[in-house]
Every structure is written in structure tokens, then in C-alpha cells.
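stage 2 :: seqdesign
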């Protein structure tokens, strides 16, 4: 039973990040966030640039501090909303619109 649960978790994790999204398909707010990431800021939210620990295990396993999270503004939201970009080592970028439940790797950021 434990083996079946472990295998299911691996399949779910793999499918949660298997999808890709091309830069041109991202919302305009994500373009703005990526530009700020590449410029080194300044960032509009205090939590931008903080360590994303990947507790969900959806992204590839890396050492602590490899992933950093950034807010993608959500029009009409009173708070940070659910959209984020997670940057890995400054070379790979992931987009989530459901607050870390799933990720899509950004192609040609």
C-alpha cells in the first residue's frame, strides 16, 4: 500500500510540472514580473525574492535557496493573489496560477 501511494505521488508530481507555457502565452503581469526578476528589482511585494522551499515536491529537487518566489500581480485582487513565478538558480522559471498546486515551465523567458 505504501509503495502504491509513493508511486501515485511521483506520478502526480511529474504531471503537475510536465506542462510548459511559452513566454508569449503568459499574462502581461507575468512579463512584468520576469523583467523585474532579470533586472534584480525593485519588487512591489515584500515577499518577492524569498526562498521557495518546494515543500510540495512538485518542482525538481534542488538544495535550499535554489528556488525564489515572485508575485505576479492579479488585477482586482486585494492581496498578492495566487499567481507566482518561481525562479530556479536564475536559469529556469516556473509559472503557477493556483498558488503552487501546479506549475508550468516557462519556455523562452
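stage 2 :: out
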Amino acid at each position: 500500500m505504501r509503495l502504491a501511494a509513493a508511486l501515485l505521488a511521483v506520478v502526480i508530481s511529474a504531471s503537475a510540472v510536465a506542462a510548459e507555457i511559452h513566454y508569449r502565452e503568459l499574462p502581461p503581469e507575468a512579463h512584468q514580473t520576469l523583467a523585474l526578476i532579470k533586472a534584480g528589482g525593485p519588487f512591489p511585494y515584500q515577499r518577492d525574492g524569498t526562498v521557495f522551499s518546494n515543500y510540495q515536491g512538485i518542482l525538481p529537487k534542488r538544495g535550499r535557496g535554489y528556488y525564489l518566489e515572485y508575485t505576479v500581480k492579479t488585477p482586482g485582487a486585494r492581496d498578492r493573489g495566487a499567481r507566482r513565478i518561481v525562479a530556479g538558480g536564475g536559469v529556469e522559471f516556473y509559472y503557477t496560477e493556483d498558488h503552487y498546486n501546479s506549475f508550468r515551465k516557462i519556455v523562452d523567458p
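stage 3 :: structure notes
- Residues 33 and 39 are 10 Å apart (CA to CA).
- The first helix runs from residue 2 to 18.
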